[in-house]
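Let's practice the habit of predicting before peeking. Look at the sequence and jot down your guess about where helices and strands might fall. Then scroll down.
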Amino acid sequence: MLKKIGKIFRLLLFVFIGVCFILFVWDEIDRTVAKKSGRFAQKPSQYPIRQSDITMYTDGKQLNNQLFSDIKKAKHYVHISFFSIADDKVSHQFLDLLRQKSQEGVEVYYAVDRLGGILLKKKERELLVKKGVHFTYYNKPAFPYLSASLDHRNHRRISVIDGRIGYIGGFNIGKKYLGEKAKLGHWRDYHFQIRGEGVQDLEHQFVLDWKKNSEKPIPIHSATKEKGTTSHRFTAYYSGEKLGQDYARLFQQAKESIIIVTPYFIPKDKTIWNALVDARKRGVRVKILFSPHSDALLVKEAAYPYIRKALKQGMEVYGYKRGVLHGKAFLIDENVLMVGTVNFDSRSFHLNEEMNCYIHDPVYISKIKPVIHADLQNSKRVTSSDVNQLSIKEKMKEKVAKMFEYYL
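Done guessing? Here is the structure:
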């Protein structure tokens, strides 16, 4: 009996490995052909330098309170998209608010990434439409490049209210982003509220994304041209096109320090990595702050090889220890600040549609610098022994993570 069970188990294992191999080969062929065809190739949208008033939120409850308040006060329209949405009390409050505003006569356009929105129930979606909310999924999987289209995600988070207020950053909709998931605990993130002429660029990008993903027409509104106090520029990326060059150029300009804040540290991009190594060789102090505790599978284990490489180059690596750190930012010489949606990983560098806000305003940067340094203080410096003296289980997980790191 045991021999029979053993044979069945070996057969099932053989079939599983075979299916995985076929899927890997198919994915590689599909992705290569899609790339050669230029199916997902699109130049980034670099917007003009703008002047806006910018407020950064790091606490999910505070952000939700402000965002929901701004939506409640909307008189004309709400354009809003997040990468993902949960199925819990927070997401239900959010969807109820959108339905309520639509019933009040406010024009509501809501979008979510097709895979990121997998938890959005059909009945919730249908009720949105019934109440007059215009809804679409971003980046629906489609033939002929099914695998490549599954890989290609819209990772942007854009909110625009009445053309006066905009939002962009790392938060999504759900109670875990408020720190209310016991397994994850405290959630730390970076999200901007924009008031001023920069809102027109968020509006423009939302309209572009909507038109690309929906047959429903979307009206063009005139967002505010009123100037704020902080100089900034938005750049929207498609499949990492030019992102590597932008990051490398900024890292090459560094003279004293580079601080990178990222949930995941999987820098599988030679252009970006070489620019960091060159900066370190010039004597630039490089600090990387990532989140060992995460909501995503295998990302910590996928980071181990790159942490070893970083430590060998004399870079400093820190692991956030108060919960989950989900912010995406870097600070260069206290002269350049980036906050946006790009993670320091292969998926953001090569597959996702992203959007960053670049700030060169020393006054505003001086306000955000203590926030980043506080997160460094709430972290533990990673040593070589931390990533070299791993348990057998961790070593096995690292090997598995290595196989999938391009998609993490």
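How did you do? The longest helix spans residues 2-37.
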